[in-house]
Amino acid sequence: MDRRYGLKSKGYDFDKIVAIVGAWLGLEPQHIVTSGKRRHEVEARDIVCCWASKELGMSQVYLAEKFGVSQPAISAAIRRGDTIIREKQLELK
Questions:
Q1: Angle at 29 between CA 72 and CA 92, to 5 degrees
Q2: Which CATH class is domain 2-88?
Q3: What is the pLDDT of residues 23-80, one digit of tens each?
Q4: pTM (2 decimals)?
């Protein structure tokens, strides 16, 4: 909880996470939030979903609306994102 409030007080929100992940992967933010099946875009969406849900406490329903997909699709993206974050040792700072 403390980390969540600390991140929010530093200005972290959905758009900032999208921008950070986009910068790391060399993608424009609009390519992350629009549908597409290119590997890097999917990977970026998975990371964004995981951090937005786990670090900022955003609901899966909210994320589903932002990405235009179903809640079960967001749940799967969060699981994939968690794996990617652990494998690449990424940290939201």
A1: 75
A2: mainly alpha
A3: 999 999 999 998 778 899 999 999 999 999 999 999 999 999 999 999 999 999 999 9
A4: 0.90
